[in-house]
Design brief:
single chain; alpha/beta; globular
Length: about 260
């Protein structure tokens, strides 16, 4: 565990796992998420990679942004985390908002990105395919994070997710700053410039980011691979931990 203080005074919370001599995998979490959201994945990913996980500014145990920020701020944070850990080049794995940070990093710092793993994400709201509104019971918005029927068929799994989330630190201001950064960002017309090997992961039952966005990313990014997680929702890495981790650990060794 470590705290990295950025030039503006914002402190970023970092955890590392695995052998530092292994390929480095930087985990980039979603909006409002935290490192605990990767807890089901890190043990397996760390068997083959040196895993660096950190909380975005405005998430988890990191500080809130002092003021408005843009996507470049989050990219600069990611590069600073790599610098702090002594890593020149890493595999970037971003989920949802984290996928946008990873994508922008690959476009602006390609020499530092070994591969790009874009999961449950899109290239910016201006060109994103919208989803039909998820119908969930009043007072239970979290159900939209899962595939239809998953909470009913896996109640203990979902309860563990909810209990873990309740123990985390929530930042309403931080989430708003991330949302604002996302609204002002668009990489759609630059997708053809992505020059690093790319894997696109998406659950076929994602009710927050339409699966069609994955197809668009895969079609527009040169040489990108598309891997569907059949029957998984937006929290694909919680619902289908083993298949999701297997896809990542199959991809990375093929692109050292």
């Amino acid at each position: 565990m470590a705290l990295l203080t950025r030039p503006d005074g914002c402190r970023l919370y970092i955890e590392t796992y695995g052998d530092p001599s292994a390929p480095t995998l930087l985990l980039l979490e979603g909006m409002g998420g935290d490192i605990l959201g990767w807890r089901r994945n890190i043990p397996t990913l760390a068997t083959a990679c040196y895993v660096i996980a950190y909380d975005h500014r405005g998430n988890g145990l990191s500080d809130d942004p002092a003021g408005p920020v843009d996507m470049a701020t989050f990219v600069d944070d990611a590069m600073a985390v790599l610098d702090d850990r002594g890593v020149d080049r890493a595999h970037l794995y971003g989920q949802s908002f984290g996928g946008m940070v990873a994508l922008e990093a690959a476009l602006t710092h390609p020499a530092r990105v070994a591969t790009l793993i874009l999961a449950a994400t899109h290239a910016g709201p201006a060109h994103a395919v919208a989803v039909d509104g998820a119908t969930v019971p009043k007072g239970e918005p979290w159900r939209a994070l899962y595939a239809p029927g998953f909470p009913e068929s896996h109640p203990e799994h979902v309860r563990d997710d909810l209990d873990t989330g309740a123990r985390g630190v929530r930042h309403k201001l931080g989430e708003r700053r991330q949302w604002e950064a996302m609204q002002g960002w668009d990489a759609f017309e630059r997708l053809g410039r992505v020059s690093v090997p790319t894997l696109v992961l998406h659950g076929t039952e994602d009710r927050l980011v339409a699966p069609e966005n994955a197809r668009i990313l895969a079609e527009r990014i040169p040489g990108a691979e598309l891997h569907w997680l059949e029957g998984a929702g937006h929290l694909y890495h919680s619902e289908q931990t083993a298949p999701a981790d297997a896809a990542v650990l199959d991809f990375i060794p093929r692109h050292p």
